[in-house]
Amino acid sequence: MVRQKIQRILFSRTLRHIAVLAALAGVYAAVCVWLELLIAPRFSGRTPNFHTTLSLVLGLLLVFRTNAAYARWWEARILWGGLVNASRNLAVKIVTIPATAPREEIEAAGQLVLVFPYALRDRLRSVESDDVPDEFKDFAHKPSAIVKRLYERFTAWRREGHIDGMDLRVLDAEATKLLEICGACERILGTRMTRSYRRFARQCIVLFLLILPWEMAVTLEWWAAPMVVVIAYFMIGLEVVAEHVEEPFGHDEDDLDLDGLCATIHRTAGEVLSDKQ
C-alpha cells in the first residue's frame, strides 16, 4: 500500500512538483529548528497568536479557492456530458426525421455532428488537428462554421419538402445546444480566478510556512522539520491542484479527458448514424 502511494507520487507530475516544494519547506524548517535550539532558544515562542490567526485566515482562503476551482471543473464536465447527450439526440433525429432525404445528405449531416466535438476541443486547447476536415481549416471559429453548415442542410431539407416546419424546430432544438455548450466552455476558458486573489492566497501560504517552523520548534524540536513537510505538502498541494483544476480543458492529468469524450461521441453517435438503412 505504501509502495503504491509512493509510486503515485513519483509518476504524477503534479504530485512530484508539490513534493519538491514541501521538501524545500522541510529544509527551511530544519534550519529554523537549528537556529532555535542552538543559537536563539525560545525565539519562536513570541509569535503564537499571530500564527493561529493566520491559520484561520489561510484556511478560509484555501477553502474558497479550492471550491471555486472545482466548481469550474465540474461545470465543464457537465457541459461536455451535455454535449455527449445533445450529439446522440441530434444524430437520432437526423437519421429518423428526414426519411425521404437522400442517403448521402443524411450521412453528410451526421458527419458534421461527429466533427463538432473535435472542433470544440481544438478551440478550447488552441490547437489544430487532423480530426477536423480541411474544409473548415480557414474558419476562425470552426464550431460555428460546422453548426452553420448543419443549418444550411436543414434549410435545404425544408425547402425540398423532406421535413416540415415542426421537424425543423425539433432539429433546431438539438442543434442550438451545440453552440450554447461551446459558448459556456469559452466563458470558463476566458474567465479565470482574479490574479490578485491568486497572488494573495499564495502570499498567505508562503507567510504561513515561514512562521510555522519557529513555533513548532518550541515543542517538537527536530520533529518540527518532518511535520512541516507534511503540512506544507497539503497546503501547497491545495493551491497547486486548485490552479490545475481551474483550467479543465488542457492536457494535465487533472484536466478533463476531452479526447476520450470526443471518442465516446464519435463511437455512440456514429453507431446511430451507421444504423440507417
UniProtKB/TrEMBL annotation:
Top-level taxonomic group: Bacteria
Localization in the cell: Cell membrane
Annotated membrane topology: Multi-pass membrane protein
Any single GO CC term annotated in Swiss-Prot or TrEMBL for this entry: plasma membrane
Oxidoreductase recorded as keyword: no
Keywords (A to Z) from UniProt: Cell membrane, Ion transport, Membrane, Transmembrane, Transmembrane helix, Transport
Entry GO MF terms: chloride channel activity
Pfam families, A to Z: Bestrophin_2
Transmembrane parts of this sequence: 20-40, 52-70, 200-217
Name of the molecule in the record: Bestrophin, RFP-TM, chloride channel
Family (UniProt): Belongs to the anion channel-forming bestrophin (TC 1.A.46) family.
The species this protein was found in: Botrimarina mediterranea
InterPro entries: YneE/VCCN1/2-like
Organism taxonomic ancestry: Bacteria, Pseudomonadati, Planctomycetota, Planctomycetia, Pirellulales
